[in-house]
TrEMBL record, chains A, B:
Residues 16-76 form the HTH tetR-type domain. It comes from the Bacteria. Pfam families: TetR_C_24, TetR_N. Gene3D superfamilies: Homeodomain-like (1.10.10.60), Tetracycline Repressor, domain 2 (1.10.357.10). InterPro entries: Homeodomain-like_sf, HTH-type_TetR-like_transc_reg, HTH_TetR, KstR2_TetR_C, Tet_transcr_reg_TetR-rel_C_sf. The keyword DNA-binding applies. Residues 39-58 bind DNA. This is Transcriptional regulator, TetR family. The keyword Ribonucleoprotein does not apply. Transmembrane segments: none annotated. Residues 203-222 are annotated as: Disordered. It comes from Actinoalloteichus caeruleus DSM 43889.
DNA sequence: CCTACCGATCGGTAGG
DNA sequence: CCTACCGATCGGTAGG
């Protein structure tokens, strides 16, 4: 009896954008030209509709930004609230959060990209930055706990370790593109190796139980 | 370019900005508001002069960008051309380039920040991106060489290792601020530990790097 | 002839 | 979702 949101749009009224498909296009343009550098006219011409039509869906440019970065933030917060991130040794929880964050980053690449480029010039941007800082603090607490449990090196400050770890993770948005032969799981495997055990080869150290010898996880470069 | 900004200009004509001191202010504003989001009027009011006066020094906004990113790029290329980056084991050369790049990043933080935020919307931006890619290729070659020499782990693709390594390095601009108790050398020391040996504590491995006796790495000068 | 600007205004385009 | 607009501001240039 009650039609779903997509149902309603397709049955009644003109065919056109719903909020989700509009956001998908808007985020792509924001990432190409920068949020500040994108005019509502840019968005309208890319969407194939007029500027005013956009205001049918959202109150303005800032709401487009808010809805977009919240989509990324909601999924990242969901990760740290999953049971695997809440119990067990902190080092395992940290690895879990890292792997799941990479999955979110890959699945929602344009939205996470936009989130990471927010600078804080407007209210919506400052709101996004505040939520980011809250996420960073949760991760930082996890790193600190892992250090006090003795599973993370004690000769580097936990806050610094946390920043470098997620700095490396976030940098993935700069070059990762799907459909280039590197899956999210292969990427996460390689990332965890580099981050947790370093890029140096250590012939004297015992290898982890049967690291798959078949694939090297080559990312088809460029 | 070691003379004080106002020294040279104080002899003839009005006291005012020379190109260097103008760039210092311009880059700061670009980083605050974004390059696209910065108007010439923004720059003028921050400088305390009129818009027209800026055109006395440069041909336009794009030239301000070009001069700024070239300052960062020139120093980064200088690093890979230093003798310590040209001879010896590739792993040592890589560590040297990492330490010196961190020193450049810290010394020229606003200029490197601007460089890393360039997106390619204008000709000057695309030119900067091309030079960045050239630098990245030099580093990537070094990582590949270190892997073929057996000093870097073989179970991760060198191009991927290189991207993660410099992704982590570049992320320093997001949070590092001078005068907060973390010197560039301390930062580089911690960075090299995390990047080369990983964040995991390894009670079974010797504390000091065992495989290569002698030096632990080049102290990067700064 | 130089350096270092000023006050005013150009044709177009921004978000709403 | 469109047409017809607004107040303001954009990057850049004129003569002095």
């Amino acid at each position: 009896m009650t039609d779903g949101p997509a149902e309603r749009a397709s049955r009644r009224g003109r065919p056109g954008y719903d909020l989700d498909s509009l956001l998908t296009v808007a985020v792509r343009v924001f990432n190409e030209r920068g949020y500040d550098g994108t005019s509502m006219e840019d968005l309208a011409s890319r969407l194939g509709i007029t500027k005013s039509a956009i205001y049918h869906h959202v109150a303005g440019k800032e709401e487009l930004l808010r809805l977009s970065v919240d989509r990324a933030l909601d999924q990242l917060f969901a990760v740290v609230n999953e049971p695997e991130a809440q119990r067990g040794p902190a080092i395992d929880r940290l690895e879990y959060v890292v792997r799941r964050s990479i999955a979110v980053l890959v699945d929602e690449l344009p939205f996470v990209t936009l989130l990471l480029r927010v600078r804080g010039n407007t209210a919506a941007e400052r709101r996004a930055l505040a939520r980011r800082r809250e996420f960073d603090r949760l991760v930082s607490d996890l790193v600190e706990r892992a250090e006090s449990e003795g599973s993370i090196r004690r000769d580097v400050d936990p806050a610094l370790t946390s920043r470098l770890l997620f700095g490396m993770l976030n940098s993935i948005i700069e070059w990762y593109r799907p459909r280039r032969g590197l899956t999210a799981v292969d990427l996460a495997d390689a990332f965890v190796k580099i981050a947790f055990d370093g890029l140096r080869s250590r012939p004297d150290a015992p290898l982890s139980p049967a690291p798959d010898p078949g694939q090297t996880g080559s990312p088809a470069g460029a």
